[in-house]
Amino acid sequence: MAKVEIYTKQYCPYCVRAKQLLDSKGVAYQEYPVDRQPELRDEMIQRAKGGYTVPQIFINMSHIGGCDDMLALESRGKLDELLAA
Ligand SMILES: N[C@@H](CCC(=O)N[C@@H](CS)C(=O)NCC(=O)O)C(=O)O
């Protein structure tokens, strides 16, 4: 199973949507709450090459982007491939 990581804030509709999609697929993920652990925000920005909005999503250590990016992969039928790898 793929390693999925998602940096989130609690009151973030894009984070909720992204997690809903992963949940609907039964995919387990590691969630990093950047609002509750501010040091994670610096780590997120570094790993996301400057991306500072939440969520920031990684699959098998590769940066996928935010919620819209993950939804775009899903609509192109590519997300399941990444999650299966
Ligand atoms: N297009 C982005 C939009 C993400 C976004 O705008 N997130 C908001 C929170 S819901 C954000 O990070 N705002 C800046 C901030 O909280 O520092 C995506 O799909 O992930």
From TrEMBL:
InterPro entries: GLR_AS, Glutaredoxin, Glutaredoxin_subgr, GRX_bact, Thioredoxin-like_sf. GO terms for biological process: cell redox homeostasis; cellular response to oxidative stress. Keywords: Cytoplasm, Disulfide bond, Electron transport, Redox-active center, Transport. GO terms for cellular component: cytoplasm. The keyword Electron transport applies. GO terms for molecular function: glutathione disulfide oxidoreductase activity. Coiled coil: none annotated. Residues 4-64 form the Glutaredoxin domain. Has a glutathione-disulfide oxidoreductase activity in the presence of NADPH and glutathione reductase. Reduces low molecular weight disulfides and proteins. Belongs to the glutaredoxin family. This is Glutaredoxin. It comes from Bowmanella dokdonensis. The gene is grxC.
